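Form 7-S
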Amino acid sequence: MKYRVKRLIDAHVHWHEHGELDPVILEIIRQEFPDLFSHHSDPNDPTFLLELLDLEQVERAHIINYVSHDVMGFTTKAIDWVVQFCENTGGRLIPVGGVDAKGSHNAGEAIRGYLETGLLKMVKVHGPHQLLYPNDYLKGVEGLHNLYDVCMDLKIPVIFHTGTSIFPKARSKFGNPLCLEDVLIDFPDLRVVIAHGGRPFWTAEFEYIMQKYPKVIFDISGVPPSRIGEYFPRFARYADRVMFGSDFPSPRVKGMRRNAELLYGALADYGLSNGVVDRIFYANARSLV
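Output:
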């Protein structure tokens, strides 16, 4: 098969220890991807995922994990799990982890060792699943302040979920990207990645943030390619700061490569240079971690 996207990194893949995942959510994913489950007997073995990367010609993938006991079922075991899952994969699986910032005043220090040694390459803050706003350090959540301080000190990128989440216990009110304005002001050297662009409710707020803060990276995962122009009318202004992610395996995302090719087709109307297109699908993620 001849692909139009020549070099591809998927910067947003969800792969978790199924023993921790809430059974209701596991069943939602199982119904969406029956073939995936029928061929994969051990989710803790990265072999299947690596073979899938080979099949779809994806160079590497960022594996997103974080603590979310109440909503997703993920405990602090998620950090060690993603580290172990990604090790010995030749750098093809990139470990991303998140901590319970509400449960520890020293959330950043708790994972400093993982970050300093490169066991974790990025940190994930997921408001709707961790039940907090990204700027809740202004309301006494000291763990967030400590986390941002440590990540800023170590130059570790922090990826923020914005927009909604369909899972039953998720609280989407925590997904407004405008809350990140405080973070960007108070932690000016923090490397910030915004996932999903606030879709579908807060895309205007997201574009405001992108225009005001020229160092922010947009992880475009979870956005239907056919709705790029509708959601993001100013997309061409910051296209060189966009990073492809599929959000696989999430509902309505059919595959890493499939999602990339659909996005490539949707970008044809923007007249982007080959260099910018390569940044979207490869170079921005490659240089991030």
